[in-house]
TrEMBL record:
This is Malonyl-CoA-acyl carrier protein transacylase, mitochondrial isoform X2. GO terms for biological process: monocarboxylic acid metabolic process. GO terms for molecular function: transferase activity. InterPro entries: Ac_transferase_dom_sf, Acyl_transferase_dom, Acyl_Trfase/lysoPLipase, Mitochondrial_malonyltrans. Residues 65-166 form the Malonyl-CoA:ACP transacylase (MAT) domain. It comes from the Eukaryota.
């Protein structure tokens, strides 16, 4: 976001206290070649014009926002166990973490679930399980997702959902 704002500011001449104007740019040397014209000519003769990609109407797009640390509660995930692949997610978490995350999520105690080392994986797996439910009930919402985001552990969930990371690559903070 900051980079985008900085680029926009630079384009408007706001960066580093400079005010750009047409007179601020030096004139090209007398025999200078117009590179833009050369590129335009080269692409016009070598390539066919491309058809613009059709944009989806906003009503056919979805954005998924994933929760972060602090949204954990004993019993989370209980209603998701009947959907395909949810038990597989918890089994994978057990093999990666070395403890039964499903048991901790369903039965607590809350004090143990509130520890960073436990709540981050619990929120992460429950969020992916919720996506499984969403995919089962409304597959078009998942298929038409154009963005995914989150805060804290939700960022990792968004990256795994988008395919940018593998489930087993996520590293959690180990503060207790």
């Amino acid at each position: 976001m900051i980079l985008r704002v900085a680029r926009a500011a630079w384009a408007r001449g706001w960066g580093a206290g400079c005010r750009r104007g047409a007179a601020d740019f030096p004139l090209p040397p007398p025999r200078a070649v117009d590179v833009a014209e050369l590129l335009r000519d080269a692409t016009a003769t070598e390539e066919e014009p491309r058809e613009a990609a059709a944009r989806r109407p906003p009503g056919q797009c979805s954005v998924l926002l994933f929760p972060g640390q602090g949204s954990q509660v004993v019993g989370m995930g209980r209603g998701l166990l009947r959907y395909p692949r949810v038990r597989e997610l918890y089994a994978a978490a057990r093999s990666v973490l070395g403890y039964d995350l499903l048991e901790l999520s369903l039965h607590g105690p809350q004090e143990a679930l509130d520890r960073t080392a436990h709540c981050q994986p619990a929120v992460f797996v429950a969020s992916l399980a919720a996506v499984e439910k969403l995919h089962h009930l409304q597959p078009a919402v998942v298929e038409n997702c154009v963005a995914a985001a989150g805060f804290s552990v939700g960022e990792f969930t968004a990256l795994v959902f988008a395919g940018a990371m593998e489930f087993s690559e996520v590293k959690y903070e180990q503060r207790m």
